[in-house]
Write a structure and sequence with these properties.
single chain, alpha+beta, N-terminal domain of MutM-like DNA repair proteins, about 25% helix, Helicase, Ruva Protein, domain 3, about 280 residues
């Protein structure tokens, strides 16, 4: 489930380890499906141990640990992964432990209940090739209306589906796509090439506003309780959801019942009154 707000919250939770040295890297025993770790653990340890952590970045839905060597440890949590500096929700699903120097936060962890995430150490050239602008669109926090128009105005895809394409815009997932389209007043099934300039502007503004608000509340912890911040605490934005997961409940803006449809095999929630589907 982690999308941009959740991953950005994880990133910020790791900031106290900037300036520390990596002391050890351990792959922990887990009875569930193994995660993808590249390179294998002995090579990963050899390249990381002794390196100073220079920065903690984010690329789309990935946390990036930048080392003094220029290598970047990229953690992609996907559906059920967490990046932690505190004890995990359940130690059974701990996958990797990275020990660092210092007295506080002596380790950070990668935890993943279902084993869908990926951890990879990239050289600078590999990072540029695999996660550069040819692979990922601009970050959703800085994407402008004109960039959305340039990338999507000729597309016949439904706008909600297009927003999930990470090559178009990096960081938006199913939950926040539904939320931002409600704020922008745009029907999720509206074809991209039918959007007006004003709608592109409203959508770009809504994307930044919704994502920044969600970051302030440290992301959304849904009913399964999977997502936790780096300190193993719930997010708070789920209490402010306008449409996501609220089928049949009143729209907070107009009071009409929230509807649910399926797009690209994903649930979409919207208000038919606030997000009218006008004839095309």
């Amino acid at each position: 489930m982690p999308e941009l707000p959740e991953v950005e919250t994880m990133r910020r939770g790791l900031l106290p380890i900037v300036g520390r040295q990596v002391v050890d890297v351990l792959k922990l025993p887990c009875p569930r499906k193994p995660i993808a770790v590249t390179p294998r653990i002995d090579r990963l340890r050899r390249r990381m141990v002794g390196q100073t952590i220079e920065a903690i970045d984010r690329v789309g839905k990935r946390v990036v640990v930048v080392l003094a060597s220029g290598d970047r440890l990229v953690i992609e949590p996907r559906m059920t992964g967490l990046v932690l500096v505190a004890d995990p929700p359940d130690p059974m699903y701990l996958r990797l432990r990275f020990d660092v120097s210092g007295k506080r936060y002596k380790s950070f962890y990668y935890w993943d209940r279902r084993g869908l995430g990926k951890v990879r150490l990239y050289s600078p050239a590999e990072f540029a090739k695999e996660l550069g602008p040819e692979k990922l669109g601009p970050d959703a926090l800085v994407m402008t209306a004109e960039e959305y128009r340039a990338r999507l105005s000729k597309s016949k895809r439904a706008i909600k589906v297009a927003l999930l394409d990470q090559k178009v815009v990096a960081g938006i997932g199913n939950l926040y796509a539904a939320e931002l389209l409600h704020v922008a007043g745009i029907h999720p099934e509206k074809a991209c090439h039918r959007l007006t300039r004003d709608q592109w502007r409203r959508m770009a503004d809504a994307a930044v506003a919704v994502l920044e608000e969600a970051i302030r509340y440290e992301g959304s912890t849904l009913g399964d309780g999977t997502y936790r911040n780096a300190l193993n605490q719930d997010g708070g934005y789920q209490n402010l959801h306008r449409v996501y997961g609220r089928e049949g409940l009143p729209c907070p803006q107009c009071g009409a019942a929230i509807k649910r449809i399926v797009q690209a095999q994903r649930s979409t929630f919207f208000c038919a009154a606030c997000q009218r589907k006008r004839p095309t």
